[in-house]
Structures
1.
Amino acid sequence: MLFSSIPFLYYFLPIVLILYSITPKALKNTVLLLVSLVFYAWGEPMYVFLMIATIALGYIFGLLIDRFRGKPLAKVFLFLSATSSLLALAYFKYADFFIENFNRVTGLSVPLFRLALPIGISFYTFQILSYTVDVYRGTVNVQKNPVNLATYVALFPQLIAGPIVRYSDIEIQLTSRSHSFDKASDGIRRFIFGLSKKIILANSLGELCDAFHLSADKSVAFFWLFAFCYMLQVYFDFSGYSDMAIGLGKFFGFEFMENFNYPFISSSITEFWRRWHISLGSWFRDYVYIPLGGNRVKRLRLFFNIFVVWFLTGFWHGAEWNFIIWGLYFGILLTIEKFFMSDLFKKHKILSHVYVIFFTAISFVIFSADNLTSALSYAGGMFGLGGIPLASAEWLYYLRSYGVILAVGIVSATPLVKIAVNRLKQIRTAANIINFLEIPVLIGLLILCTAYLADGSFNPFLYFRF
C-alpha cells in the first residue's frame, strides 16, 4: 500500500488514527503492530510471515546475546543473528544475480529462482542488524517484550522505505512517548508537504523521464535534461516519502531522524552524502566503516575501507552491476576529494557546486539504468558517443513543456523558500498572514494531490525496487 494512494489516505489512515486514539496507553504498541502487519500484508500477504520470522529471530538472538554478555557465546549468537538476517536478504534479493553471473562465467544454465522481492526487506534487515549489534555492544538494553521489538521493526510509517530507524533512537519512545496537538499538527504539515513533493513534483518529472526512455530522437541535450529530471525525481520521490514517514511518526508520538538535508546545495560529494539518505550513510559508517578501522588506519587500508563501504552501498540498492559501479563511482570521487581536492573546494565555492551537480547527474544516469549495458550506453550518450547529435526538436519540446515544473523543482530542492518564509515571519504582519494562509494552503495541496490520484495519474514509487 502506497502512502500516495486513495486507499491509504482516505481509508486505512483514518481508521488507524481512530483506533490508536481510543486505545489505552498500555495497548498502543499492540495496535500499531497489528495495523502495521495489515499494512504490509496488503501488498505482501505471504512475505509478512518472512518479516515476522526475521523479527522473531532478532528477538531471540537479542535475548541470547544479553544472556551471555561478556562470554564467547555472545559473539557466536551475534554472528548467527547477522548471518540469518543477511542470508534471507541474499536469498530473496541477490540469488538470481549470483546465479546469472555464475552461468556467464561457467557457461552453465542453472535455472533462476525468479523470486519476487519482499518490499522493505533491505530496510528492516538493517534495523534488526543494528539492534542485535547494539545489544552486543551494550549501547542499548535488550528488549524483553516481543511486541515492543516487533513494533519497532514493523512500524508502518518507516517500514517500506525508511528512514532506517535505529532501535537506539526510539528505545525510550517505545514505552514512553508524548502525544500533543502541536506534534500532531506538525505531523500533518510534514505529511502533506511530503505527499506534495511526491505527487506534484516527483510524478510530473517522472513523466518526462518516461518520455525520454520511449523517445527515438535522443540527443546529448536530451540526455542531460533526463539526468537532471531523474535526479530531482528520485530526490522528491524518496525525500517526500521520508517526510511522510516522519510526519506519520509524529501522529503516534515518535520522532524519526531526518533523512535529507538539501543535498544539492553541497560543495563536495562528501557533503552531498552527509545530506542525502542520511540514515543509510550513518548506518554504513557506524556498522561497517568504523568497525573496519575508519580513517584511523594506514592509507592503503583506508582505501580498502572506503571501497568496501561503497561497494556495499551500491549493492544494497540493487542486484545489478550498474548499482555496484554506481557505488564504486562514488568511492572513487570521495577518495579523490579526501586526498587531493579539499583545499580547492574551499577556494572555489561556485566551481565546487558545479562539480557536485555535474558528477551527481552522471551518477543518477548510471543509477537509472536496468543493467550495466544500459548504464554505459546512457553515460556515453551524455557525451555524444555513438554519433548522438547535440540537440533535437524533441528535447526542445519537452524542455518547453516541463520547464515550469523543472524550475519549481530546482527551487524546491534548495532552502530558498524556507529561508524566505523564516525571514518573513520575523515581520509581525507577514507572520500573521503566513499563519492565516497555512491551513488553506495545506488543504489546497491535499485536494490537488487527491485530484491527481483520482485521475489515475502516473504514480510509481521508485524505492520499491530496492
2.
Amino acid sequence: MQECVFCRIFAGDIPAKVIARNDAALAVLDAFPLAAGHTLVLSKSHRGKVQQLEKSEAIGIFELVWKVVAAVEEATGAPATTVAVHNGKEAGQEIAHVHVHVIPRREGDGAGPVHSMFRQRPESGSLDMDSICSKIASNLPHN
C-alpha cells in the first residue's frame, strides 16, 4: 500500500525518527506531536483495524508498546502516558493503518481523560448492561 504514509515509512520512502522495531511493528516519533516525546507504534502489515491483525501481529505490536511506554515516560520525565488506538474513521482514526499513540502526560497539560471526548453519553439507567455484555461475549472469537 504505497499510498499509505505509514507503509511508506516502513519502506524507507519517508524519513522518520525511529525509536525501536520488532518483527511486527515500528516505533517512531509522531511528526505532529501533541506533547514532546509523542510516539507512534505502527503495525508492519497494512491493516485498517485492530481486529484485522493476526494474533501474532497484535502481540508483537503491543509488546513494543509495552516497551516504549516506560521509555517515553523516563525520557520525557512525564509521570504518565495516554496510550490510544483509534480503531476506524468514526473513532477518529485519520490514517487507515493500525497505530498506537503513546503520549506523555502531565498534570495541567490541557488534555483530559477519555470520558472528556464524549459530549453525548447514554444514561446509565437506559442501557441494558446484561444484554450488551452477553452480545459482546457471544461475538468473541473462539480461538
3.
Amino acid sequence: MNIKQASVRLTRWHGGQHPTFSTITREMKKEGLRPYMWENTPNQRYGVRSHGYHKVLYVIEGQVEITLPDSNQRMNLRAGDRVDIPAGVRHGTIIGATGAKCVEAALVSR
C-alpha cells in the first residue's frame, strides 16, 4: 500500500519476515543509498523542520509518527515501513512509546 500526501510517500512493509538492519540496508544500497542507523528513547520529539535533500527512512524496530503540518497529516510507521520525504517538505517526528531504531539516508540527485 502506498500513500502519497504532500509529495511524501509511505510504503508499508510486506516482507514475510521481521525486517532486519541487514535486510533493509542491503535494499537501500541497491538503490545507491548510503544508510546509517539511529535510535531514540521512548516519546522523543523532533520539531518541525525541512531538509535540503530527499530523505529516505525505514523503521527497523518500534514506531515513528511523521507529522506534516502543511497538509495537516500524520503517518504512523512501524517496523519495515519506509517514508520518502522530498527536499523542502516540512515534517516533525514523534518516537513511539517503546522507542525506535531507524535506518536513514539522503537521496542525492545525480
4.
Amino acid sequence: MASAAEQLAASMNLGLLSKATELKKRIWFTLGALLVYRVGTYIPVPGVDASVMGEMLAQHGGGILGMFDMFSGGALGRMTVFALNIMPYISASIIIQLMTAAIPSLETLKKEGESGRKKLNQYTRYLTVLIAMVQSYGIAIGLEGMRGSFGAAVIDPGPFFIISSVVTLVGGTMFLMWLGEQITARGIGNGTSLIIFAGIVANVPHALATLLELGRTGALSPIFILIFLVIAVAVVAFIVFMERAQRRIVIQYPKRQVGQRMFGGDSTHMPLKINTSGVIPPIFASSILLVPATIAGFSGGAGGSGILQTIGAALAHGEPLYMVTYAAMIIFFSYFYTAVVFNPEETADNLKKYGGFVPGIRPGRSTADYFDHILTRLTTVGALYLCVVCLLPEVLISKYGVPFYFGGTSLMIIVSVTMDTVTQIQSHLLAHQYEGLIKKARVKGRGR
C-alpha cells in the first residue's frame, strides 16, 4: 500500500498542484508566516547597541551563544525581539515529555486522550514563559555588563531597561510559539520545526559565499572545495536514507465471528525507526558540552585563568576529549530518550488488549521483551549513525579549516524538516486526487 501511494504521489504533476486550492492556500500561509518571522529577526531590542553584541558573539561564537545564534538565524547576534527564538518552547516541550515518564499524574494525563493532551500543552506554555523570563533576564543583565570597541552595549542601563528587555524578549518568544501553532494548523508541516529550519537556512547563502571566496583567494584549493561539496551531498543522502530506514514488525489480528460474519484476520506492521530519538541527543550533548567552553571564554576574556580555562581548552571544538565526550553523550542520550518515548511494556499491553500479537511470540511479557531486544539493536545503530553525522563536520571544520556553517545537528534538522514537509504536501495531493475520483464516481452514478 505504501509503495503504491509513493508511486501515485510521484506521478502527480504541476497541473494537479494547481488544482489543489486548499493546498496552495496552506503553502502561501506558511511562506507568509515565515516571512513575518524573518522580518522580526531584524527588529532590534530597544536600548541595545547591536554592534557590541555582534562583536562579543564573534569573539565567543564557539560557545553556546553561537549555537543559539545559529538556530535563531542571527537574531541573537543582532539582538532583536526574536533573539530567544522558539528555543524556550522546545526546552519546555522536552522537559514536560521527560516529566511525563517520571511523574504518574502527568502520565495519566497523557493517557486521557485529547483532553489530557490539551492540559499538557497548557503546562508546556506556562513553562515556556518561565524559561523565557529566566533567559531574557540573564541576557539583560549580561548586556548591561558588556563593553566593546564601540562602547557599552546598553545605552541607558537600569531597572527600566531590564523590565523592557524581558517583556520584549518573552513577548517575541510567545509570538513565535503562537505563529508555530498557526503554521501547524493552517499551513504545511510542523510550525515549530519550520521556524527553526528557516533560521538555520537563512545563513546558507552567506556560508556558501564565504567558502567560495576562500577558494577564489587561494586559502582553499578548488579540488578540496569540490571534494567537500561531494562529501556534503553524500552526508545528506546518508541522513535521508537513515531517517527513512525502519524495522517493520508484523502484527497479526485473529479472526472473530459476529453473528454470521467473520471479522479480523488481518495483518499489519509496526514500524520502528532506526533513529527513534531524532535530533534530541546531539542537541542535548552539544548544549551541555558548550557550557564550560562559554564560561571559560568569558572568564578568559577578563584575563582569568585556572581550571575553567583548562577544561575549556580540553573541550574546544576538534580536541580529542571533546570528540570522545560528544560521542559518549550522544550514545547515552540516544538510549535515554528512546526509553522515554517508547515503552515496550505499554505497547505490548495495548496489543494484547486489542487482540494483536507478533507471530511466534507469546502476548504479554514475551512480546515486551521482544520489542525491547529489537529496539536496543536499532538504537545502537541509530546512535552510531548520529555519532558519524555529528563528528564528521567537526573534523572538517577543526582539522581542515572549512568555514562551513552547518554541523551535524543542523544538517539533520534541515533534512528531517524537509522530508516531513514534502510528505505532508504529498498527503494533501493524494487526498485531493481521491476527492476528485469520488466526485467523478458520484457523477457517473447519477448519470446511470
